Amino acid sequence: MTFEEVLPRLKAGEKVIRSGWPGAELYVKLVDKTTFEGEDLNPYFLINVRGEGYTMFTPTVCDLLADDWEIVE
């Protein structure tokens, strides 16, 4: 799937991953708008990496143009 195809699924709360990644990456998810210390926090992507936990995720141009995105069940 392309990023354009998975984006609505991310917005619906599903998790995605690229099959071309080496394997430690478990999934990417979208975190909805929240608040932090009384201030708005805009939506952002998180990636879960085995053994490391969560970190912020910003898709690269290669990620945006890739067609190997998959839904994680």
What would the keywords be for this entry?
73 residues, two-stranded antiparallel ribbon, Tad2-like_dom, DUF2829 domain-containing protein, alpha+beta
Detailed description of the structure:
The chain is built from two helices and seven strands. It is of the alpha+beta class and 73 residues long. The protein has one domain. A hairpin with a 2-residue loop joins strand 3 and strand 4. The model has no long low-confidence stretch (mean pLDDT 96).
Quick structural summary:
The protein is α+β, with helices and mostly antiparallel strands and 73 residues long.
Going across the biggest sheet, name each strand in turn.
2-5-6
Main sheet record: 3 strands, antiparallel
Q: Distance between the terminal alpha carbons, to the nearest Å?
A: 15 Å
**Average pLDDT number:** 96
Output the radius of gyration: 13 Å
Structural class: alpha+beta
According to DSSP, the number of beta strands is 7
**Tally of helical runs:** 2
Helix content: 10-25%
Q: What share of residues are in beta strands?
A: 35-45%
Low-confidence spans: pLDDT under 50, at least 5 residues? Answer: none
Q: What overall form do the CA principal axes indicate?
A: globular
The SSE order reads HEEEEEEHE
Total number of distinct structural domains: 1
Pfam families: Tad2-like (PF11195)
Domain Thoeris anti-defense 2-like: 1-72
Protein name: DUF2829 domain-containing protein
